[in-house]
Amino acid sequence: MKRLAALALLVVGCASRPQEPPPAPPAPPARTAAPIASAAPAPAVSAPPAAEEPKPLTRPERPLNVLLILVDSMRADMPWAGYERPIAPNLTALEKESVSYTHAYSTSSYTAKSVASILSGKYPSSLKRSGFFFTRYPESNLFFAELLQKAGVFTAAVHGHMYMRPGHNGMDQGFDDWEVVDGISFDNTTDKFVTSDKMTPLAIKILKKKPENERFFMYAHYMDPHDVYVKHPESPDWGDKARDRYDSEVFYADLWIGKLLAWCKQQPWWGDTAVIVSADHGEAFGEHKRYRHAFELWDMLTHVPLFFYVPGATPRHIDTPRGNIDIAKTVMDLMDVKADNDFVGESLVPELFGAEPPPRPVLLDLPPDSNNPERRALIQGHDKLLVFGNDYRFDLYDLKRDPGELSDLAKKEPEKLQEMKALYEKVWGAVPKVKPYGGNKLQGGGVANGPAN
Question: Does 32 have pLDDT greater than 70?
Fold first, then answer.
């Protein structure tokens, strides 16, 4: 079981909401006008010129720093989305100041594939990779941190799981500083450590030593909502069931994220810093007879929070579906780093500054490996096509009417099924596919005999 960590490292702080302006003073009592000495008309006084209306911003006024916060296993049903328990007060406050996507999706359903997709701007099936569950990525892949680094951006990351140790899985390409907290070991079945209390001090330590005049990109991956779920004394006691203990974990991670944000707000660079909050995947608590994550692409495993706190951007909710595949190009755009790349997402910056979000499909990708069978999904509006194996089965769901994906419409709505299959073939057909390497057997058949470089 995870150990309980003491809170004695930093001054408690949280992401505060903007203060309400003080009430206006009461109007002075009306006075009786003095008698007019002369009936002669007063000379005309020309009115001052009307002040010009400020033009709305369409993008950041200047290149920004970016802080990317991923909370492992954080589901979409958080307090800002209507969940009744106040399990994340600091993130809830930040979300109110942000552009928030109500229908956002991780690219895959577990860390090794979804984080690689975020950092590369590509679907995991397009990346050169090993065929094992704890996937490795060779240097022949391009990660966007490499482009930031070449542009003179200080790049750093902090982690709470030994799968993310430096030099192990290849996702640290392009990072000046990539660190894992002390005192943990590798367990290939779960996460038995409490690390949020170490994550925040480590992140602050790294940011303190960054070159003074360099912009930065920091990626902080908070692990504590990952199983094993434990109850924290700092959290309200919601009970002993798995979801109750998970909620306590989210509260604890949020507490330490709040401390990080509070420290950031005291720094001179805060006004030039964007914060992106999301998750690498969701978590299951019995839906579709699933628990934890990976292996499938059901909504509870892939529907995640995604919001952007960006200076100058007006807070709002966007209901158009979007995916974490868009984070790479969005970070590059926020930081005004222009470099050749083959990232497949789109920059969300125009939408963050008020542009109408055009509808486009969201593609989910779980390629086969030693443990996961092949799964793909396509979301267009509120329709979702779930694809099994080598296209041997297609399920169709209406996420608006049936958010739990309990009623397969494939036979009931054959025209919609054909429409979605045609779109799937068009979109998925444009995605380059690379076989994994390593020589191991893959779930569902086949061998990982692809290129290693």
Answer: no
